[in-house]
């Protein structure tokens, strides 16, 4: 139910999605953080594990946990209201409202991620998790903020969204972070959450994707982090019921192996790839009626193979000559159910 998520170095292959899930510091205070895999409300085992973890990573140790858990006059935390807009509200103003909502949820410093995000799940399942985040109004980490940002911006068809991940190095350790890249009106920006003010929201004012990435790189330099890799996904569908998976890392760029000009060319190439995908319609999600009549994709080994009943199209005026068939042998005929 509760599983440790380790840092970017030495991550096992089966835990790669958790490593890539984008915690900009996968080690809270030098201790690996945990992921609540038991859902909400939090079960007793997860609850106690969280507080033991807090005692290890907080400067005041067990005292902080005892003080909070023993208090009887803690204020009730209100449930936040999702942003609403007027028809005349501009796209930049709407994105700022979404960012304010994400910021008001606050960053989760407990060392236990409350919502389990599996990157391999279809978009519709991730949107259900976003609805749960809204209902619970709990503090979140950066990957959760990306899922929430996608959900809250689905109603903006003129805004394209894509995952934007960073891997940095500081003092011999690697750190990961993820934001939701935005593209609208020929300008780039980002939504997200972080411990650092300049590693999350970026308004729609960057002319190219390279300018946006360089903005984050400059922020990292201010914290003595060296940017090593950038992972960029494709545009995310606006259909909340889509069964597509999010393309989290369509392009993986080794920043430290490229010059600034080479990096810019790589980012321009990825921007072109994203634009090409816009014109390609995604396969429609199966409706309830279609789901009810769809059989299992796996054929029983004892079942007969289906024949292709489609007739090959021929140019108009050309007649297909049918070969005479011998009469069927009824002696070997069997009825199969």
Describe this structure in words.
The strands form two sheets. The protein has a six-stranded antiparallel β-sheet with strand order 8-7-6-5-9-10, sandwiched between helices. The two termini are 44 Å apart. The chain is built from nine helices and ten strands. The N terminus is likely disordered. β5 and β6 form a beta hairpin. By secondary structure, the protein is of the alpha+beta class.
Structure, briefly:
The protein is an alpha+beta fold.
Descriptors:
globular; four-stranded mixed sheet; 337 residues; 10 strands; alpha+beta; six-stranded antiparallel sheet
What proportion strand?
A: 15-25%
SSE arrangement, N to C: EHEEHHHEHHEEEEHEEHH
Provide the low-confidence segments as ranges: 1-31, 287-320
Query: What is the share of helical residues?
Result: 25-40%
Q: Which geometry do the CA atoms define?
A: globular
